[in-house]
Every structure is written in structure tokens, then in C-alpha cells.
Design a protein that fits this description.
Universal stress protein; 5 strands; 5-stranded parallel beta sheet; 5 helices; alpha/beta; UspA
Length: 151
Amino acid sequence: MRIYLVVVDETPEAGIALRFAARRAVKTGGGVEILTLMPPSEFGPWGGVQATIEEEARVHAEALVAGAAGTLLEESGLRPSITLKQGDGPKIIREMIAANPDIAALVLGAAAAGAPGPLVTHFAGADAGVLPIPLMIIPGSLTRDDIDRLS
């Protein structure tokens, strides 16, 4: 099965990328893998405080991904796979792609204004020629109708 890997965060462009991936998956008989990344832990002398911060980040990330999965199910009927990982985003993405040969494309959303974001910058730059799958960068300026028309 063709899987579209989408990185979801709180940005509007992540929702646009998710909608595009879902529409493509429906049309190609594929699926969607939602990945939410949490920043790596910072080890310090205040372990209890750090543990509380990490737990709050995890709860927030789980709520974010649950909302995205619910929207995806409601709009497309697809039940996505969900992955929540902590650490270096590009490294985690490369590991996921290497571990799952069904992942057919990495779908990222680019901000409508300003910098495109660290993952888009990384994968369109440093790793652009070495990914074993296509990279789809979805412009954050697209409307729902634009996405439906293009996907």
C-alpha cells in the first residue's frame, strides 16, 4: 500500500499538507502516516521539572495528532497511522522511511509567508537528492478548493 508520510504540527500549512496527502491517498488507494515531532530532551539538574515539561509536551502533542487524525477520518474516511516521536526531526523521518518500504512520499507544508520551516529547508536543501522517495512540498497559500483541484 502506498503511504504518504505527513509531519503535523500546529501550523496552518501542516493542515494543508495533511489534506493534500489524504486526498492523494484516497485517489491512489493508499494510506496516511501522521508524524508529530517533539523536541529532544534537554538534560539538566532539574530532572523532576524536566519530566513535567516533557509530559506536558507529550499530552499536547497527543491532542494535536488526535485532532488531525479525527479531521482526516471525517473528511476522507481514512484511518491514519499515528507516530509520535521525540528527537531530531530529519533523523527520525529518514529512519521511518528506511523502516517502512510502503512510504511512497514525504509530504510537508511550506509556510504561506516567511521562512518555509526547518523540515522543508532541510529536505529541500541538504537531503534533497538523497531521499529514496519523492518530497512533496505543499504551499501554505493553497485553499481547500485548490487542494481538492490539485490532488
